[in-house]
């Protein structure tokens, strides 16, 4: 409930709304009744007036506002209806409580409640909310707000009627249809008129009619709640549902990585590829006039050689004609190369262009030509944006703005038309030169190729998928192209904010999957054998290049990192280089020589140099890469970073684009394969496994899962040792693929499988899937699938409950204005570990009586020391103060906001709980962990 409800009288006076007194919609002559719900005098006659002018109904008496009735009266005292109906009498005792009574002074009815409202003490009224702490908390908040409003806001005698344009009335020759809202308004008016007509009748029960009026007001309120909220409400339809009005729902697919450079993909973090069919359908506003003007300006002759007049061309290539072209392109790929006819329809329009070789060519103009030319000019060159929505929408990263790259055909080429260069123009000549489309047989043959020649999916940067909880298995997005300059400017501004890439913990959301992580690791790992020292000239050559000069050609033609069809391999990415540290910019090493591999130096030059990050002279494991991204984010926004070390958001975006281009392009070159040695146990390990099973047969027969877990651990350790020299074991060395569920189940044994939904009973199966499951164990193995299915259903339910509770707790969290300090004397005592130091940059600790801001420069002095940390957990302010929250959130959101609704940014954390629970059924192995209760620290209160 808001802090206030609509002041009916003030609204009526301000809008000059007029009273509706009749429940009749139409008069005898079929025109709207002058004082009714569709009146022209009340709601106006122009479309604009009927969308904006409101009326009101005089209730003729005092009634409880329906929202207050539902949220306060009905929840406080469930017998409130007996008072409104007048079916029972009450007194107000000396505690302010309503008490049922048959005494002479007892009263009933709405007038009784209105006259005595200020005497009521709602907090003492019995209610049944005590068992639900969350509901009770919400009720108490509502009650406090209502008591501040005062009696004359809570009890109303006027009711606003919405504009006539939003209340449907359909008429035809035989019937009239009236929507639900008009019926409710009519019902309300009829009850009021009945009450007014019988007010002075002796035996007339006015209380019961008033109750019916009150309930009608509640019905009207519930109608609007249904329209706005709930499963079919506008909020779900327009914001959360897959509604595609004025947009297109498209399947997302992976972009191609065929450029020589790694950082200049046409589809990148700021630009997505949309098929021409979607662009032209949604951007008719931009295309129709441009195409019509273009066609009318072309020199076109009739069959006798006489040029058509401008009027003839404008009349023929009119708005409807262009719409027809768009319709044909969208619904018939077989007609997309249909040629555009001259105004007399006896010939085809010719157009001239220059190909990439500089040759001037002329051919028939097709529908695809005109749609692509102006879609490219207006949308792509015009930097129009599309809002891409991936459902379910959990947070801001599920709805992203992107610029548009127009996709047309599989084959493209560079052409120039009227001095405009089109680098990815659809290769129409390829089809028209290959087939004679005027010949029926050739046209049929061409249609087979055309069915897959046009691109019809959205191609989005892989960097977007993690934040959107999306993947490439058929997921769809909704695209809504923005028309106004203001909306496009707003999207551009959003893309230039750090919050478009980082969450409020400054974690990079634009990340790639396991293939990319494995690429970076394998490219930077040390060789397990035959390591050699590379020539210093190789290091000099790499360092002499600019980041954009690290290309595919450079790696394989100049550095010759692999055998190609024309060149022999000369260098290996695992070879060691010794580089003078002074030659590596922004290096923080104290050594005079930096020892690294060729692969590590290449990635430094390509990815790190422009973001002022030192070389990572170690294998790039996923956690190390994530740390690098997050530290770069700090270099963008933190006020504690020296100016010379700061980078821009554009620098970071360029890093991300190069990271994607390199990882995706090089994965097939460098990523290891799974060979047979990784999928079998050696005879020695098989022998050891058999001996351990025999020595512990009694425990295994009794399904002692702890004993069997120890056996598995020993055999797994032997397998790891045996594979340590296998280059393909990089899958495991990187940490991206573990030896746990997949390897163990496939190669070692299925292990201990649950046999009941409480996970109290287990059955040990010592055979692996590669060995085959014995017949007597098949039932137990199959039963695990049933248990897994149960887990898949039950675990998300439990996770959902946790997520809901998390939402209740977190949604109200606000961080106060910049510069605030609650002055609390309660701190969190903690030891600052080296691995987590970056998480505390920007936070405050207490030394003596001073608050000390942790920065990159001073945090090293506190590593492995116990400090007193200012924390939101111990903040005294209702809105967490600046000092307890730290500086990071202000660096991200800005320091000019009155407060920051931090809790509203935590919805994704709740959804992640559900997702994690959902994935539990993918792993049926038993896991053990040790609990160290010494890590739990209580908050510290300063007693000085």
Give me some keywords for this one.
944 residues, alpha+beta, Barwin-like endoglucanases, 5 domains, 5-stranded antiparallel beta sheet, 40% helix, globular
Principal-axis shape: globular
Mean pLDDT: 84
Fraction of residues in helix = 40-55%
Beta fraction of the residues?
5-15%
Q: Quickly give the structural class.
A: alpha+beta
Record field, number of beta strands: 26
Radius of gyration: 36 Å
Extract low-pLDDT stretches. 124-132
Count of helical stretches: 35
The biggest sheet amounts to: 6 strands, mixed
Overall domain count = 5
Distance between the termini: 44 Å
Strand order of the largest sheet: 9-13-12-17-8-16
Describe this structure in words.
By secondary structure, the protein is α+β, with helices and mostly antiparallel strands. It has five domains: about 10-235, no CATH class; about 250-340 and about 365-500, Beta Barrel (Barwin-like endoglucanases); about 515-660, no CATH class; about 675-790, Topoisomerase I, Chain A, domain 4; about 825-940, no CATH class. Helix content is about 40%, strand content about 15%. The protein is built from 35 helices and 26 strands. Strands 9-13-12-17-8-16 form a six-stranded mixed β-sheet. Strands 24-23-25-22-26 form a five-stranded antiparallel β-sheet. The chain has a four-stranded antiparallel β-sheet with strand order 11-10-14-15, covered by helices on one side. Strand 23 (about 845) and strand 24 (about 850-855) form a beta hairpin. Helix 13 packs across helix 16 (about 365-380) and helix 21 (about 515-525) crosses helix 26. Residues about 125-130 have low confidence and may be disordered.
